Amino acid sequence: MPLTSLTGALAVALAATALTAPAEAGGLNIAPLSDGTPGHAGGGGDERATMSIALYQGDTLVKQSPGRSLTVYSGLPDEPSPYRVTLDVERDAQRWGTSTRTRTEWTFLSAKPPEGSPYETDIPMLQLDYDVERLGPLARITVSATTQEWLDSPVKADKATLAVSYDEGRTWQDARLVPGGKGRWSATVRAGGSLSLRATAADAGGGTVSQDIIRAIVAE
Asked: What pTM did the predictor assign?
């Protein structure tokens, strides 16, 4: 029975501008869906999914917007401040079959870029990627987490967790992760029916990411 999944379901291309610019403004534009090919992000089916993105400064909601992007035009502080971004995506389960509902949260620090910086400055944000290998009745799931690879000095996560669900997120079971190198872990779990994933990762600088993918993997 082949194992099918939509890997890297979220955060494949975090082409987000800095949250602070000369006008105390900034924007986020996160491609929510992709296949497993490097460099692929968004397009096509995005328009057929229901999406919502929100930006928080600490615990205060700054702005929420339908879709995958938002812009804040003023009011952001110059000094380094903690932010949280949430992205919720839902799409037709009968049409797509996998990755039918996802929720991703990122936390990070951001500040006004130095004078002379480019108008748009990428925010380093951890991205979760997945690889799945079928082992008879089992599946080996490899989770990797790093900030955007195109940045000058990408940061790899040093902590991660993984939980799996066989009832589309109603209940969760912790999976035992085995380190496989910096920013990379794997777990072997039972593969049967639909398998949903809940992963988290954190780096030494305080950046975090958490992600739920409902029906991430389907055994046919």
From this structure: 0.84
